[in-house]
Write a structure and sequence with these properties.
Largest sheet: 4 strands, mixed
Number of domains: 3
Distance between the termini: 34 Å
Number of helices: 11
Oligomer: single chain
Number of strands: 10
CATH topology of the largest domain: Butyryl-CoA Dehydrogenase, subunit A, domain 3
Strand order of the largest sheet: 1-4-5-8
Shape: globular
Bound molecules: acetoacetyl-coenzyme A
Structural class: alpha+beta
CATH class of the largest domain: Mainly Alpha
């Protein structure tokens, strides 16, 4: 077993770390406070190969492996979680499904601009009445005689919805078939029949824009169907498996930032005549934070490694996401507690880490859904 990284992986990690620490972290408070989408920073990530890390170079990406993606995501998330949310949707939820299921023309048209960071992509699965139970979607796609589809319906909680150019959309094409009646479509938001709804005011990752979207008689040309009719649910689940490795990495980045700030603070802050890091109650928290952080990192690297081997990695991705997101919530909670009043103050980033960590237990499959996936895989029962 080799715990080392390749030179290429370390180079990308280094690029991501420099951008995160020099450009993103210093502006994170501003974007969080205003809930403003960081347009220029996103372009910068694209110019540095961070918007399509696993996308082959022929489609505008960096042509690297899943381990490199994990390392880069951790660095960007440690700078600011919201930036890494936008980055993860471009990289995995948008590009991955098209690379795996798209035609050559679809890859050229839709992947390049997103992988280069010139445009922003989105993934539309969730609806107002269906989140975890994704097959209960109502958004409807009706096939026409010429092979095109007419789409009507709403999608909610769309990350990058207010700013995206292209969307991978899932809609019910044959409702009586349930999961097997869902088809995936590629959407250009400049076309008629596409509407953006209200932007969601959020607890955390506030610089990533989220909104409801609506389709009213939106026509999808036959060449913009992604994969075969009825394959949409499997495409969505496969894409989410990869997405969950990205969210696990994001959780690790947030947790690492909180942990590193805490390590500094416990050496400087004095109480009862000594640095608080000398107290056993603080030491126990530090030890538990470090163990959870390392466990999350190793499980996430394992999931990425299995993905890189071309094997099914649904279980490993769910284990990584569950472990890393719960670790991030716990670590940021303890970091706020150890910082006391300063942890609660907006003068330090600890309260932002705490708010940002929460979403990792919710999106791309809640912790409850990850447990369901893991238990089904382990027992073989449904
Ligand atoms: N890969 C490939 N195929 C898969 C799969 C996977 N990981 N998981 C399931 N499938 C296939 C099954 O094999 C089955 O195929 P057959 O019909 O051929 O047998 C089919 O899909 C249906 O599977 P299930 O019967 O297991 O489906 P289910 O209705 O019981 O649902 C679920 C399973 C795990 C609960 C799933 O619905 C799920 O993951 N829900 C959570 C949805 C989610 O993660 N939403 C996040 C929204 S996106 C987001 O958050 C983006 C963002 O903002 C950034």
């Amino acid at each position: 077993m080799d715990f080392g990284f390749t030179e290429e992986q370390l180079m990308l990690q280094d690029v991501a770390r420099r951008i995160a620490q020099e450009k993103i972290a210093p502006s994170a408070e501003h974007f969080d406070r205003l809930g403003e989408f960081p347009v220029d920073n996103m372009r910068m990530l694209g110019e540095n190969g961070l918007m399509g890390i696993e996308v082959p170079e022929e489609y505008g990406g960096a042509g690297m492996d899943p381990i490199a993606y994990v390392l880069a995501m951790i660095e960007i998330a440690a700078g600011d979680a919201a930036h890494s949310t936008i980055m993860s949707v471009n990289n995995s939820l948008f590009c991955n499904g098209i690379l795996l299921n798209g035609t050559e023309a679809q890859k050229q048209k839709y992947v390049r601009a997103i992988a280069e960071g010139r445009e922003i992509g989105a993934f539309a699965l969730t609806e107002p009445q269906s989140g975890s139970d994704a097959t209960a979607m109502r958004c409807r796609a009706v096939k026409q005689a010429d092979g095109s589809y007419v789409v009507n319906g709403k999608k909610s909680w769309i990350t990058s919805g207010p700013v995206c150019k292209y969307i991978v959309l899932f809609a019910m094409s044959t409702p009586e078939l349930g999961a097997r009646g869902i088809t995936a479509f590629l959407i250009d938001t400049a076309n008629p029949g596409f509407h953006r709804g209200k932007t969601e005011p959020k607890l955390g990752i506030r610089a990533s824009a989220t909104c409801e979207i609506e389709f009213q008689d939106y026509v999808v040309a036959a060449e913009d169907v992604l994969g075969a009719e009825g394959q949409g649910f499997k495409i969505a689940m496969g894409v989410l498996d990869a997405g969950r490795i990205g969210i696990a990495s994001q959780a690790i980045g947030i947790a690492r930032a909180a942990y590193e700030a805490t390590l500094e603070y416990v050496k400087e802050r004095k109480a009862f005549g000594a640095a608080i890091g000398t107290f056993q109650m603080t030491q126990a928290k530090i030890a538990d934070m470090k163990c959870k952080l390392d466990a999350a990192l190793l499980l996430t690297l394992r999931a990425a490694w299995v993905k890189g081997q071309g094997q099914r990695f649904s279980n490993e991705a769910a284990i990584a996401k569950l472990t890393a997101s719960e670790a991030a919530m716990w670590i940021t909670h303890q970091a706020v507690q150890i910082h006391g009043g300063m942890g609660y103050s907006k003068e330090m980033p600890l309260e932002r880490y705490f708010r940002d960590a929460k979403i990792t237990e919710i999106y791309e499959g809640t912790s409850e859904i990850q447990r369901l996936v893991i238990a089904r895989n382990e027992t073989g029962l449904r």
